[in-house]
Amino acid sequence: MENVLTIEYPADVLWALQQDSDEFETEARLLLAVKLYEMGKLSTGLAARLAGVPRVTFMFLLGRYGLSPFGETPDEIEEDLRHARQASHCQ
To answer: With contact defined as beta carbons under 8 Å apart, do 33 and 42 qualify?
Structure first.
């Protein structure tokens, strides 16, 4: 069973964002899913379903918002890689 959420918004929002209602609603669903994932309230799978995209697509989209599907920020992952490279050169 699917639930429906209706949010009223002024037409000026569409004008300001230069989007039609379908684009805005699609983006709003994605942003809600990303935020709930970021807060640790939804898994990547459930967030992807909320956003209306496949899980793998959602995982790639997380990078657009500076998030990682692995629970680490891109900077943390890069730092881990740097440490791994340094450790491999020391051996």
So the answer is: yes
* pLDDT at position 91: 56
What is the DSSP secondary structure assignment for residue 66, as one 8-state letter? T
DSSP labels, 60-78: HHHGGGT--TTSS-HHHHH
Q: What is the pTM of this model?
A: 0.74
Cα 38 to Cα 19: distance, rounded to the nearest angstrom: 25
CA distance 24 to 88: 47
Question: What are the Cα distances from residue 19, in Å, to 41, 52, 60?
Answer: 29, 18, 23
